[in-house]
Amino acid sequence: MKIGNLAPQAGQKSYGTLVATQTRGQFAAEIPLHVVRGARHGPALVVQAGVSGLEIEPSMVLPSVAEELNPAEMSGTLVLVPLLNTSGFEFEQANAIWDDTNLHEVGRGRADGTVSEQLVDRYYRDVIAPADAVLDVRTGAKWGYFRYAGVYETASQERSRTLATALGLPHVLLGQPAGRTIACEAARDGKAVVSVWVGGGPGLRDHRESDLRRIRNAVRNALRSLGMLRAAFEGDTEQPMVVSCHTVLRHPGARGFTFIDKSRRGTRVDAGQSIGQIVHPFTGDVLTEVKVPRDGFMIDAGASWPVVPDGYPLAILGDIVS
Amino acid sequence: MRVGDVEAGPGQHAYGFVRVAAGRSGLAADVPVHLIAGAAPGPVLLVQGAVHGNEIIASIAIVRLARAIDPARLRGTVIGVPVLNRVGFDLSERLNRMDGKDISTLFPGCPSGGVSDQIAAAYFREVVARANVMVELHAGGQSGYERYILYTADRDPARPTEIERNRRKLAIAFGLDTAAFFPQGIFGTNASEEAFERAGVVMIQPEIGGGTGWHEHGLDSVADIERGVRNVMKALDMIDGEPETDGPLCTVYNAGIVLWKPPVDALFIRRQGFGARLAAGDLYATMQDPYTGETLAEIRTPQAGIVIPSGQEWPTAGTTSIGILGVVDAVEDRRTLETSVRFAR
Fold this sequence. Notes:
heterodimer, A: alpha/beta, Aminopeptidase, CATH 2.40.50.100, 2 domains, three-stranded antiparallel beta sheet, 6 helices, B: alpha/beta, twelve-stranded mixed beta sheet
């Protein structure tokens, strides 16, 4: 096998970069990655994080996850990308800097497209296409706080659900909103795909260590679930609450301070119930109540910081499946 | 009392905007003001938030305070400014993007300068100069969490001026268990602080809350600010009541150890929490390669000190300090310390 400048042999692990293209200033648009190739044949798992340049906490732990693994004791191949959007990280923004593009919105890229499209195209062809399963590690960036595993509603949903259930997170969300993310494209291609939503800036101070442990455990539990690693389960629960998504509440139009009642997360809420308010930032007047359109279970996800970008999810609700 | 175009008679609460400069497109970042004029005479207290546009905890608290203060029971005047830097607030940025400047450093401003200088000049003239006391509230933005009160160090600690004595009193009266001052010159000359002093304004800077602690402590931070401002009002005899504080003791730190980003940049990982007692050479943080996990640099303390409740937590190091340590200057006991402050004008 060969990915970028990496060609690890069976039973070896290596670290290198996948160079996709050059910018006009001749910077390399590249993706650093680890490959851990097990001694025995088996599935290929990709773990990617930092597709947004503001979802960077997973990179605090993912390199050590690769280091911890002994390829001689593994089957199959793990490709681990701790922080995909290097330019977003450099310039501290969600989008790639070269063309101000959200790498979650270019599908599987284009070979003749912009820098970001070329980057994703090369990555998709060389890394995602050969994989059997993908973990897309996400966070709430600087605005929200999350703790669940999300599955797209595609033909591979059942296999994705099996994988999601094994990760050790408290909630599994079926039918998470589809889009033009790399992960969603992979799910459409029939791979087992889980979005691992853990952490976010507003919880960083109090939950950093436990969330980094959750990410580490999720990767190891995925390897275990796919038969790539013999290891004991480590995580919050082996029996997560599985919820079928029916509502993602987003900004209702009025802007100001957004206060969401986080104590409702992890509970059932009723249609019409207020779970938050948008408040005028200078007068304190309540501009609008954030109300739940139908009964549902509110998973542990959504905005926390009171100033959130338009379109950011305020809350996610669904029906309990199991 | 009149502030800009906002006017309130005794026992009234008025809300409006103070006109400041407009940008090249005509965008006018006029400053929202609550003017709460007490039924009885007394000092003028300015409570100001979001001069750094991403430090918004105080904005929430100031609005709540403005709605809760009863002008009929108030002695003196409260000027509440929830957001001074409106453009920064809208863009969730520390500075004013209209010209990239930090308004907090520009007082008394310059009417013929750039937009931020003009904003500072109009605001200083119409608002700051009318106050006896200014509570300038800061926070950790989205990248940190803080909980202490800062005030300017005395020029000559052996012979403090009246303004210096009063700001230390009010800093302690605010009610937190931690106060700190930076030794003169540690951040260079602060023209704004000198301008406040020349205008006779006693200025204190609570640093409370921030994005990384919001999920668990956000509303606690808001409550801390509300409580602290009320305590200042009690110390100024603007309202009745006993102060509510963290406890009787307030540790005052000489915060002379400021840690900055090392020459190498990478993933910033803070290793020490609030109150950690560090010896010289102890590890404060590391810069880690985000792709390999390799430690690229270690940030160690140059001298022994205690970590002030402050500093960067988000895993990138910005342009501001990433940690502040101090040594104990004094432990003040509010049971015996006189914290009341009175003004002739």
